[in-house]
Amino acid sequence: MSSLTDLFANNELWARRCSARDPGFFTRLQAQQAPRYLWIGCSDSRVPANEIVGLAPGEMFVHRNVANVVVHTDLNCLSVLQYAVDALAVAHVIVTGHYGCGGVRAVCDGARLGLIDNWLRHVDDVRQRHRDQLSGLDSDAAARRLCELNVIEQARHVCETTIVRDAWLRGQALEVHGWIYGLADGRLHDLGFAATRQDDVAGVYDRSIAALWAEGAMR
């Protein structure tokens, strides 16, 4: 119970600091939500989306799930995407994974965790797609590479949704990106996936995947 009391105390202190720093902050925040970005990231508590890109509340729309997966049957994710694109008219959708992802590691290790194993089958599909190349890496390198590959695959999935395709068809300015975050240094890394129209997607996907393996060959 004391830990929950601490949370309320922390919240009161945070609210006071925000108001002291900017007296009109909460008034503006409740009046309008106009983020330019949708962040699709992992649920991992070590990856706070707004903080690591230095944005305040109201400046980024966020969806998070285990291993930052985008599945065409996930109505939760698709509803967030549709609202962000159609209602908020975000300019960027950013799929962001992170090194050291527990879900990706579980797939690499073949761990059995319960119900979540069904969700992680989507990540295992990515592993299977690239299994020949991954088999040549040691376990830690393979896990890092699968974190990267999973981001690129999920960014491609975003581009393949009817939501994004329809936005591009009507000429809406919208860019889909694939990034990854390093827990060890707090830095974001661009994985080279950046699509602005449907005709871009296949080429962007191929180039970003090829660049990953070329990078690995140079190490």
Polypeptide structure, described:
This protein has 219 residues and is an alpha/beta fold. The protein folds into 2 domains: 1-32, no CATH class; 33-218, Carbonic anhydrase (Beta-carbonic Anhydrase, Chain A). The protein contains 10 helices and 5 strands; from the N terminus they run ααβαβαβαααααββα. It has helices at residues 2-21, 25-31, 49-52, 75-87, 102-109, 116-129, 131-134, 139-160, 162-169, 201-218; strands at residues 37-42, 60-65, 92-98, 175-181, 188-195. Strands 2-1-3-4-5 form a 5-stranded mixed beta sheet. Helix 5 (102-109) packs across helix 6 and helix 8 (139-160) packs antiparallel against helix 10 (201-218). It is globular and about 55 Å long. The mean pLDDT is 94.
List the SSEs and their pairings:
Elements: H1 2-21, H2 25-31, E1 37-42, H3 49-52, E2 60-65, H4 75-87, E3 92-98, H5 102-109, H6 116-129, H7 131-134, H8 139-160, H9 162-169, E4 175-181, E5 188-195, H10 201-218
Helix pairs in contact: 5-6, 5-8, 8-10
